[in-house]
Amino acid sequence: MASPSDRFRQRIFFALVLGRDAHGKPSVGPVSSARARVQPSRRLIRDASGNETLASHVIYTEALLGLQHRLWLPGEDVADFNRARRPLGVDELVDGDGVVRFRKVWL
Question: Which residues of 31-53 are buried (b: 16+ CB within 10 A; e: fewer)?
Fold first, then answer.
């Protein structure tokens, strides 16, 4: 049986927001990359706060991503923090052995 990661043919970039300075400018960690599958998707979801919001993309990846990360889609300029997107929600998908196989990230 093929692993879900065999379908991750794109590359996303991400960085963890470590904090903010006195002016509110975010301080981020190093930018990393991971294989992923990025799918445009117009879907109404509940964000981490419980509010309904419209998601524009869903990303499947094995990267350890959370709500404090910022992501750049394939082809975007990772040097421009204003192009980074904030996850609305992250779902972990677990296999039959109880191991997290990949994450589903909503943007």
Answer: eeebbbbbeeeeeeeeeeeeeee
pLDDT number for residue 24: 84
Full domain range(s) for residue 25: 4-106
Residue 84: count of CB within 10 angstroms of its CB:
21
What pLDDT score was predicted for residue 101?
Answer: 86
67 burial via Cβ count (<10 Å: 0-12, 13-18, 19+)? middle
Nearest to 38 by CA among 75, 66, 92, 82: 75
State the pLDDT at residue 5: 73
Written as six digits, the tokens of 23 are 């002016």
Domains: count for the chain: 1
Taking the chain (107 residues) in runs of 10, the rounded mean pLDDT of each run is 76 95 89 96 87 94 95 94 93 86 93
Q: What is the CATH number of the domain that holds 76?
A: 2.40.10
